[in-house]
Records
---
Amino acid sequence: HTLEYVTQQRLTEPQWEKTLAKMQKWGSPITDEERKRLAPYLAAVWPKELDAPGYPRVATPPGAVPAARAR
């Protein structure tokens, strides 16, 4: 996965532990020791309470959306 995908997850430590264990079963090359160290790190850096990344809203340029047709 990309780093962007990982940082959007916002999981708790037990959820990260479960996710990382599942990834190991699917062939991820991380060791059990790495998994035990990664789960608390990921939960601390990107906690569930952290706001989701925001993207600025921009106005739609004139003419970008066709006008609705009259019925």
---
Amino acid sequence: MKALQIPAVGAVRFGGKVSLGVSSFLLLVKFFAYYLTNSQAILSDALESIVNVAAATLALFIIHISAKPADRDHPYGHGKAEYFSSVFEGALISFAAIMIFIESIDAIIRGRQIMRIDLGLVLIIAAGIANALLGFYLVRLGKRNQSAALVASGRHVLSDFYTSVAVIVGLLLVRITGIQWLDPASALVVGCVLAWTGFHLVRESVHALMDAEDVALITELGKHFTALRRPGIIRI
């Protein structure tokens, strides 16, 4: 993997700091919403935000390492260090999914009463919008500067937005129907989304670390080379 160019390092570090700052603030908002409502779905969203903060903190450190120039021991630079951040983040997401499954099943069995659902909805909707904006920003900045750590963080934040949507739908259903078990049921949906996201993120990162073949990229390159083939070239 090509090392980050010097002009891009500042932008990538700034993106990492923005991710950490916004994620920390949204973590406080979600736990405050859980404190007000006692909603299992909101708790699942808050647990994922803990992963966001931990991953953003690690991403800042990894970005610092990956930005180091090539040296004698690392002639191709330190850029692949960013994939370690992606693997760690995927593992954290999977762990959060397991915790959500445990808490949600316990809530379904024991039963919990939701309070102040309207205020909880307002807070989670606001947090969801903030996550969507942050996620798109991080993915765009990461792709522009070839930062796997920022792209991974951005995709995770976007998955947080999707889970917030599931939480909002669950709370609205409880608000309309008065059926309390729909709240932990929506939390289980959040857990399933997180489990898939974590698995997919770890798999992609491990493939990159192991230098797995990118079939789509090779196929696309092959089309362009074939179109420009000259006599004497036997096979691409």
